[in-house]
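Example 3.2
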Amino acid sequence: MIDAAVKALQQMFSPRFRAVLIKSVALALVLIVLIGIGIHRILVWLAANGGMLAEGALGSGVHGPLSVLLGLLSIIAGLGIILGAVFLMPAVTAFVASFFVDEIAEEVERTHYPNDPPGKALPFGRALIEGTKTGLLALVVYLLALPFIFIAGLGLFILFFANAYLLSREYFELAAMRFRPVAEAKAFRKTHHRSVFTAGLLIALFVSIPILNLATPLFGMALMVHLHKRLSERQRLLERI
């Protein structure tokens, strides 16, 4: 497992991976900015309308203090969105991965497994569906864990282990689907769920590091290509016995 992680990290500095990295980071940043702008505008709108209702109920004498309070709330909302972007990164990178899964997998296979038959490129629709499902699930987990963030850090543990499960499942199945039908790839992942989840802990650690987490699709997909190769080889050896 560690050897696979080291290989994945080392390959991130190759010319082909750098090209994919630039594209994936650009797309992730665009999504984060758009989500942030959307959420901020909703919060500002809610604060403004709440202020109008409060002023109507309490009278015009509270206009000055209310304006100051709304200004502070707007600033807090902006800071909260910046902080929230860190926690939303698993959802964003899960979606971004669907656009570059084959470029990453092909490069890993070409570099490390040149004598093996290459995988078959996934239909873009299938990759997009898997990435969207994982991204939405990661978002739901974030919203459910949010109330527990301030309870002895319980929410952070929930997020970490949930991300390990969700991201490991997505990246491994995408890697497996290049060689197996969808149902078989999912069944193969379930058979080896312990190994897949252990690898997922490394991905969850990676995605929890600000800035570095923008490269999560490259690291996660490369790691799972190596893992799928090794588990497939182990299965073939067992079948021969």
